[in-house]
Amino acid sequence: MTSGLISNHWKASGILLGLCLVARVAVSGVMMQGFYWDCPSGWYSTMAEKVDELRDMKDGCGIDRIWFPAPQKSHAGGYSMGYDPYDYYDLGQYDQMGTMPTRFGTQDELKKVIALYQSRGIVCMPDIVLNHRSGGQPEANPNLDGEKTWTDFSGVASGKCTWRYNQFHPSTSEESDAAPFEGYPDVCHVTGRREGSAGYDLVQWGNWLADSANAGFDGGWRLDYVKGINPSFIRKFIKGTGNAYGILECWDDLAMIEKYLKKSECPAAFDFPGFYTMGKVFNHGEDIGLLVDPDQVLAAKHPKRAVTFVANHDTDKDSHVESIVDNTMLAYAFILTYQGYPCIFWKDYFNYGLAEADGQPGHGIKPLVWVRNALGGGQPEIQLLHTEDDHLLVYGTLKGSASAPGYVVAINSHPTEVRSAKVFTRNRMLWNQALKSHAWYSYVDGHKQQPTEISCNSMGGVNLEVPPRGYAVFSVPMDSPETDQISGN
């Protein structure tokens, strides 16, 4: 059933159309987490159903990378979200742990949905769990004076990575590493440089996953719980899999993330400091200028290495993590127009109705993705324009071009008051232009309408006004082919 569904999606779009769209999507600079905690079984089918919408959220603009759930067969079988890996080489083709498919589908379904996304110009990145393993049989462990540990993986159906106790901590090669995780057998990555050694085998597994004959992942890796892994092995894994793109899940403060980025040489990390700073601003009314403080936010300090986000599978499910629930669209307006590489959460877009917010034109995530791509060129370089007001933040693209003229963004976190400011943009593509709002929103009734057009003078001066608990993105009109090409002074 799923294979047929994916096949129909493939046939629904001609080859020429797919080729034409790849170039447009490739510059969007937006990724999506393509799952959430306890998503339904057979999830690859759902991912296949949504590929065209994600490729074209608005006027040809969409995501350029999708983050897949951990693909291997895990200890909890068909119930697992993939964070308890058992047989790395079982992607849903072996009958073990009570199931043939994983929670998400079979290997064949995985390969087809990856190929489907790739045909639309979207690269595919899996979740990779390298820190620990689960589901082994008990064995007497000489490294623990004969105590039994669940570390015998000699019986996995794939016949690959058939490790025993010495591939886990404590090992004769290494007593411990950065940290274990919730009592799972903790993988020792330094037991040797040949087949059968855990670190060596995991690098080979990464290359196996990238091969289209097996899965075909081409978007790098989301590296789970890196605080439990020595940065030297992360560096080895990245380099050993072709210097692949990688994103660290280092759930910590800015200093720790910088340390891991430096020592692992991984290209990027999730901006957890930015996530918590948005919570301070949008949930608790702290100074909105904190969002662009390089001492507070990874994207403000290292924009090319920060993956920004408003929510993920953990923050959505864990009650002890304070999610950004009070002003979610303000947070999305920020990450989708600011520096860094924004990641949209599937549940926000589809389940919580934020794709179009309340359905009015200009509201929701879709127009913000279009703004980043069509107006900002996918990777905007930002100029701060106004940070003096505790509730009003204004910034814009430093420069623009005829095809991507740039924009000015204003976000107002005040619960009841309209905020206004005069700012001066250095983006000459906006000078001497009438600027309209292309994306806007307010949580306050009576302020949801599109802001009126404003003017940018010959020196880049702009007077703007923003509704309470709202935002507006201004740029030149681009509603038709006649207005797509503009010129600055």
CATH architectural name of the largest domain: Alpha-Beta Barrel
Morphology: elongated
Structure class: alpha/beta
The level of helicity is 25-40%
Strands, count: 20
Per CATH, what is the topology of the largest domain? TIM Barrel
Q: What is the name of the CATH superfamily of the largest domain?
A: Glycosidases
Report the C-alpha radius of gyration, rounded: 24 Å
What does this structure look like?
The chain has 489 residues and is an alpha/beta fold. It folds into two domains: 2-133 and 198-375, TIM Barrel (Alpha-Beta Barrel), CATH 3.20.20; 382-484, Sandwich (Immunoglobulin-like). Helix content is 27%, strand content 19%. The strands form five sheets. Strands 1-2-5-8-9-10-11-12 form an eight-stranded parallel barrel, surrounded by four helices. It has a six-stranded antiparallel beta sheet with strand order 13-14-15-20-17-18. Strands 3-4 form a two-stranded antiparallel ribbon. Strand 8, helix 7 (231-240) and strand 9 form a beta-alpha-beta unit. Helix 1 (2-11) runs parallel beside helix 3 (43-49), helix 6 runs parallel beside helix 7 (231-240) and helix 7 crosses helix 8 (254-264).
